[in-house]
Write a structure and sequence with these properties.
By secondary structure, the chain is of the alpha+beta class. The protein is 30% helix and 31% strand. A 4-stranded antiparallel beta sheet has the order 2-3-1-4.
Length: 109
């Protein structure tokens, strides 16, 4: 069991059905394969037990907590470049949607 973590991620967020979990966990999900080809990050998790699992695809800005990073800053020009680059890679991968900044807490139970 690990420690609680706070995730900072820019990209797309998918809420997963029970049927999709196995493919995501085994990394055979088509979205994960497309993300890998486009050199995008993926993150799979859930806020806490009983909550739905989610899949994030895009650029991971950081994972923060006792067992992870403590501090990170991203200058505005770098953030602008990251947003443009991530959006282009998502398009290249054929992953459609409106990318956003996702900030989420994941409690370990």
């Amino acid at each position: 069991m690990g420690a609680d973590a706070f995730i900072a991620f820019y990209g797309l967020r998918y809420t997963l059905s029970t049927e999709e979990l196995e493919a995501v966990e085994s990394r055979t999900d088509e979205r994960i394969i497309a993300a890998r080809r486009a050199k995008l990050h993926t993150h799979f998790g859930r806020v806490t037990e009983g909550e739905p699992h989610t899949l994030l695809i895009g650029t991971q800005l950081g994972v923060f907590g006792l067992e992870n990073e403590a501090v990170r800053s991203v200058a505005a020009p770098e953030l602008d470049r990251l947003i443009r680059d991530t959006t282009a890679r998502l398009d290249e991968a054929g992953l459609r949607g409106d990318p956003a900044l996702h900030l989420r807490f994941e409690a370990k139970y």
